[in-house]
Amino acid sequence: MSELLDVRIGCAMTGSFCTFKAVFEAWRALRARGAALTPILSFNAATVDTRFYPAAETRRIFEGIAGRTPLTTLAEVEPIGPKKLLDALVIAPCTGNTLAKLANGVADTPVTLAAKSHLRNGRPVVIAVSSNDALAQNAKNIGLLLSMKHIYFVPFAQDDAFGKPNSLVAKFDKLPETVAAALAGKQLQPLLC
Q1: Which H or E run contains 158?
Q2: CB of 193 closer than 8 Å to CB of 157
Q3: Residue 151 φ then ψ, to 5°
Q4: In a 3-state reduction of DSSP, which class is residue 60?
Q5: What percent of the chain has pLDDT over 70?
Q6: What is the Cα–Cα distance from 56 to 61, expressed in whole angstroms?
Q7: pTM over 0.85
Q8: How far is CA 147 from CA 51, 130, 141, in A?
Q9: Residue 66: per-residue pLDDT
Q10: Cβ-count burial of 149 within 10 angstroms (0-12 exposed, 13-18 middle, 19+ buried)?
């Protein structure tokens, strides 16, 4: 299980707080396969206390998994591209807000600037969507991102087709194989589960 041995992966979290437990397990799976993780937190993921995790606990857990202090500022993530610090960048969970920013070239958070900085090197960005409006306002942004070079998606599905018909959530357990495929320039299939 060492197919990602020494692969340098940026692990960026945005504010879909209800998925954090599953995302932490995905980070652990990457680490178990030998990846070297660089944790990155959006402003909200780094500072907002929720019913799922207090912000300090989010940072503590993430740091424990990665073995490094999370990057939480624009200045900390900006060198990712110029210094070629990562082989791949994973955004999990990726909220609808972050999807919209990525699709439209907005780089005003640690996560979106990390993506912009990393993409300058033509290296993969893997998106694990978690958004209640993915099949509504954000459907166009998913479409735009699917057509962009070096952007890959973790396979996803509706999480509650009748209660939340516009909501999509990535299959976080497929993250390691999605990263491996992205590093080979391929989108893991099937994309829709």
Answers
A1: strand 156-158
A2: yes
A3: -110, 130
A4: helix
A5: 99
A6: 9
A7: yes
A8: 36, 19, 10
A9: 98
A10: exposed
pLDDT at 3: 81
Q: Tokens 């989108």, residue? A: 187
Q: How far apart are CA 78 and CA 82, in angstroms?
A: 8
* Token pair for 35: 């990846």
pLDDT of residue 166: 96
Residue 13, CB-side half-sphere exposure with 13 Å CA sphere:
33
Contact (CB, 8 A) for 128 and 26: yes
Phi-psi region of 176 (alpha: psi -120 to 50; beta: other; left: phi over 0): alpha
Regions of the chain with pLDDT less than 50: 1
Count of CB atoms within 10 A of residue 133's CB?
Answer: 18
User: How far is residue 141's CA from residue 150's CA, in Å, rounded to a whole number?
Assistant: 15
CATH H superfamily, domain 8-161+172-183: Flavin prenyltransferase-like (3.40.50.1950)
Domain map (residue ranges) of the chain = 8-161+172-183
